[in-house]
Design brief:
Layout: H1 30-36, E1 69-72, E2 76-80, E3 96-100
Length: 101
Amino acid sequence: QHGTESLPSVEWEDLQGPALLVWNDRPFSEKDLEGIQKLGLGNKRTDAESIGMYGIGFNVVYHLTDCPSFISDGTTLCVLDPHCRYVPGANVLKPGRRYDK
């Protein structure tokens, strides 16, 4: 059983358990962070040199989890919650939260 005493809210207890870790060799830019929040839209459609230019990219994680999270640059935790079940204050317009150190 995973500890729950340091979770942001009790709703996060359901998210405790096995996890999949993926490593990227570069932090997300502000533009990347904005694009990730746009389900199925992305922000790289006009950049033929970019990975994820078709608006799919990061969104494939929703085949594995309803509430993906990631850390960028060791200082920013982003939690995406499109169903607004886990992140305190999440709503349809802002379905997630960014925690900066």
